[in-house]
Here is the input.
Amino acid sequence: MSYVVSPPAIVCVPVTGKSERFPVHRIYCVGRNYEEHAKEMGFTGREPPFFFLKPADAIVAIEAGSTGRIPYPSLTHNLHHEIELVVAIGKGGRNIKAADAQQHIYGYAVGLDMTRRDLQNDMKKQGRPWCIGKAFDHSAPIGPITPAGEAGDVDQAEIHLQVNGQDRQRSHVSKLIWNIAETIEHLSAAWELQPGDLIFTGTPEGVAAVQPGDLLEGGVAGLGSLRLGIESA
Ligand code: MN
Here is the structure.
């Protein structure tokens, strides 16, 4: 096969304890999936889960023990951090029941759903798509994927984010409004999941702005931590 332009490289994420990497197909994200975060965004109560996507090449894969770097993105004056548990799909399917969801999971990682909040809020007000606020280049930093069998009880794990050593977000995955299995059930009713899909499961309360020069350190118990520096544009 030959192509009229160079085909894109396969986006991939390291896997703890393996030399093989996880190739990324799609990035699904769940909106407002922790109650206290829904409240800080001006919403209350449990609503049906909703989803948005980021392009696979928004991934910034951070190797174990190293610090990732992203440039401060264009057009925004309010870049927010959202620390999230990420689910990596190993076996695809459609209409997956929550009771069967576990067998579709390859593993878990720590990710950041970086958000141009000012642009997202403008789009919300106008009833327009969130893409410019959510799906920009370098908007999905992620650490290594831990295979499910080595990840411990992720459903109960603590999740946290510090910026320059100060606590910004600290909660537990058990506070997800729609847990991992329920999220897979809802998502696979709308799209056929494929091996290589990543699901950013939502962020707890405490989202706030970062500046060039800031160092973010986040983690989920059992999955290690992720470090990310914000550089000048
Ligand atoms: Mn998010």
